[in-house]
Amino acid sequence: MVDIAPGGQVGIAQIGVTGLAVMGRNLARNFARNGFTVAVHNRSFARTQSLLAEHGDEGVFVASESLAGFVASLERPRKVVVMVKAGAAT
Description:
The chain is α/β, with parallel strands linked by helices. It is built from 3 helices and 4 strands, in the order E-H-E-H-E-H-E. The chain is globular.
């Protein structure tokens, strides 16, 4: 699934993962394999697309290109895992 279409997948994901480098994509895959509907987002949409292309059959993912779409796809109360690279910013 790609982004949130009007009248589409609003509020259906049980948990969200933003930041889909190695750890983020593995957490998202683990959630999906264990029965959760997972909203996924990355600053670079190509990384989100590669997760779906390589592992989309492991569970139910709701992919969003925008941060607004990502937030809208989550049921309330929202549960989000934010993965950021270690370094100066953190």
